[in-house]
Amino acid sequence: NAGVTQTPKFQVLKTGQSMTLQCAQDMNHEYMSWYRQDPGMGLRLIHYSVGAGITDQGEVPNGYNVSRSTTEDFPLRLLSAAPSQTSVYFCASSYSPQGYEQYFGPGTRLTVT
Amino acid sequence: GESVGLHLPTLSVQEGDNSIINCAYSNSASDYFIWYKQESGKGPQFIIDIRSNMDKRQGQRVTVLLNKTVKHLSLQIAATQPGDSAVYFCAENPRNYGQNFVFGPGTRLSVLP
Known about the structure:
- The complex is a heterodimer.
- Chain A is mostly beta strands.
- Chain A has no helices and 11 strands.
- Chain A starts with a strand and ends with a strand.
């Protein structure tokens, strides 16, 4: 199993550009989530999904959209990038709907200039 | 609001010594806690978890202690090794936030030769 994969690994955007961060898992996990990690801070939840077709907002959802058309994929879309969205983004998945023992991807480092 | 914090942002220990990483949480309704290890350039990795009906749980070289009276969590690493050098996060599930976790800012553990 590849586990949780994320692409791209690095990305530089200009303010106002849009892009999609990809996340996929091959463990047949129902629960997936997106976090951002900023220097000196813990991970903050952006959006999450408890199954295909079901998504919900986390702590910091503004400026991001998600969809979950399949169990495997959970892309994160930045609608109009802002410098405040410069961060490292992690996707995670877990088997349990309680989100226990989440498996994290390697992260995407995004810089918005 | 809910918060999970760490008493020490950095910790340096000699190789072979025991390490203790502390964490304070503020939501007394939290019923599940996880410790994660994050190595440089990688996503967080599950280390050990504990439920609120337990005071102590042991894994391989790691022990988590939970003191619900003072809302304190600690991670003990026995015979610390160079490979233990990483940032360690505690995370709590505050229950009123769906299936999601609130992460602390992290403690960097440096193992000295």
